[in-house]
Amino acid sequence: MLEACPRNGFAVPLKHLSRIALLGLLMLAGCRAPWDAGKAEQAKADAEAIMHSLQGPDMLRYRSLTLPPEQQADLARAWPTIRRKVALDASEQETFNKLLTRFIEPRAEAHLQRDLNAKIKPLKSEIDSKWPLMQSSLTLLLQGWIETNGQLSVSEKAHGKALVKAIIEQMPAEWLQDKDLRQRAFNQMVAIARESGIQNYQDYSSLDYTQFHSKLAHFLAGLKELGLIYGLDWNAGQKRLQVTVIAQSGNTAQVRIRYPLGQKWVEFPMDLIEHNGHWYDASATALLQTSLAAR
């Protein structure tokens, strides 16, 4: 047997070293703070409060529940700088303005329906025969967009991707092919855009901290109304919200969040961190720290 670490005439067999290393790992694992039932219960309650704030939705309250007070104040103070940092370049701003114009121009509802009709008619047979493949492709496309969005925290990305998956998996081809249903959807999309009061990228980029969260709340409320057109009641699903603490040690915890939407369940994890007796979205605090450091 090979030996290692000869010292003062002694040598330790490698098999003993492996046992010592294993013992060390077990000791390190044992150093984790034990499960604290009180902390776990508070973590669950605070995660539920985060989800409940989205029912309004009240995005300023959501922000206050995902970030500790000091970090929330830091975000508000640094808001103009952070917004400049994530600003679109000239080409992207032009694309933004063109897309927005499609939804706020006169007779936008009719124009959107006309243009989609022209695209769908030649594809009807392909939609009928390849709909599951199209669903998969659309899911991957939207989840990829969410994942690359640097303004979302890890938990927000997980929630968004789970939400997209649940919606598209239960989306029949008729949702796309039904002209009357499409028109109702376009009417709602146009209403969301027009009622926001945003006319161009300059309007959007100049929103202050409070204005931005107010517009975001308006946008999410509009999306919920859009979902109702397709029989997807997000707020109703929250009545069956399930939050389970799956890990808790010291000032860290992880919860699993589940709620139904239509015929599917939305499920995603959220890491939490404790601060002065309350639990916050750990990935939101990490994202803010990264944003502030990059200024």
Structure overview:
The protein is α+β, with helices and mostly antiparallel strands. It has one domain (37-293). 65% of the residues lie in helices and 15% in strands. It contains 14 helices and 6 strands. It has helices spanning 14-30, 37-52, 59-66, 69-85, 90-104, 108-120, 124-147, 154-169, 173-177, 179-196, 201-205, 209-229, 234-238, 282-293, and strands at residues 3-7, 10-13, 242-249, 252-261, 264-275, 278-281. Strands 3-4-5-6 form a 4-stranded antiparallel β-sheet. Strands 1-2 form a two-stranded antiparallel sheet. A hairpin with a 2-residue loop joins strand 5 and strand 6. Helix 2 (37-52) packs antiparallel against helix 3 and helix 4 (69-85) packs across helix 14 (282-293). The longest helix is centred in the middle third of the chain and has 24 residues, at 124-147. The chain starts with a strand and ends with a helix.
Layout of helices and strands:
Blueprint: E1 3-7, E2 10-13, H1 14-30, H2 37-52, H3 59-66, H4 69-85, H5 90-104, H6 108-120, H7 124-147, H8 154-169, H9 173-177, H10 179-196, H11 201-205, H12 209-229, H13 234-238, E3 242-249, E4 252-261, E5 264-275, E6 278-281, H14 282-293
Antiparallel strand pairs: 1-2, 3-4, 4-5, 5-6
Helix pairs in contact: 2-3, 4-14, 5-6, 6-10, 7-8, 10-12
